[in-house]
Amino acid sequence: TQGLMSGKRGLIMGVANNRSIAWGIAKALSQAGAEIALTYQGDALKKRVEPLAAELGATLAGHCDVGDAATIDAVFAALEEKWGKLDFLVHAIGFSDKDELTGRYVDTSEANFTKTMLISVYSFTAVAQRAEKLMRDGGSMLTLTYYGAEKVMPHYNVMGVAKAALEASVRYLAVDLGGKAIRVNAISAGPIKTLAASGIGDFRYILKWNEYNAPLKRTVTIDEVGASALYLLSDMSAAVTGEVHHVDSGYHTIGMKAVDAPDI
Ligand code: NAD
After folding, report:
1. What is the distance of C-alpha 212 from the center of its chain?
2. What is the pTM of this model?
3. Predicted ipTM of the assembly
């Protein structure tokens, strides 16, 4: 893959630490020769993201809270000034009140429903609006989703509803932007132990369940998600758009656990 992304520049949003899916993607893109910019959410994460950016020789594009449009505008203004154009965009951002990532979906509050939708769904459209203007020679946008969008997963609740909306927005954005040679796709990643995932109830059990029941009999790593992201962000996938690509050890293919599968 060396040189696959040389001459390409992209913004990666959602690195919180070295366990973030966005970090797996950043490493893969950087190894393939891309120039990268990272954002961080607030000063506490800046301390973690700064050394990671330095490790890849990446640009620190500043603080961005996607709930605050002014901070999104500031990041894109800085990128326009520095690069003048953009080739790819990664959105690896999600949020919901962890008190509602346990128990029943039916008990979701209006306030958390609205916030979850704004941060986990609308924000992708918000950054796509800004990125469109900078993708003068076409481009590729990628977001991260989860199987809880398609089927009910315990505790995923409002986040599942949000991911379903996010996947639908990938298709609408793909149509809107296709005429400008801008592609829009999602990776549906299997469960990975990250900061965001630690807010989901019984997460260790979910990991074990996937390990026992996925066709590959294991979970996935951020580096494997990174490698698949490299495909979707590079010209290797030039004719792929509006797609939700599962990187989940094949878990989504399973309808029922085999009779002789080990109990957990
Ligand atoms: P993570 O905690 O490392 O990353 C989540 C990121 O979202 C953080 O960098 C955080 O700063 C950012 N974020 C949250 N609210 C924000 C806001 N208001 N403004 C800007 N940034 C904000 O966890 P992760 O698991 O790497 O999550 C990345 C994406 O992958 C999320 O969309 C998540 O839903 C998705 N995903 C995760 C898994 C998993 O099992 N970990 C599986 C499938 C999909």
Report:
1. 25
2. 0.98
3. 0.99
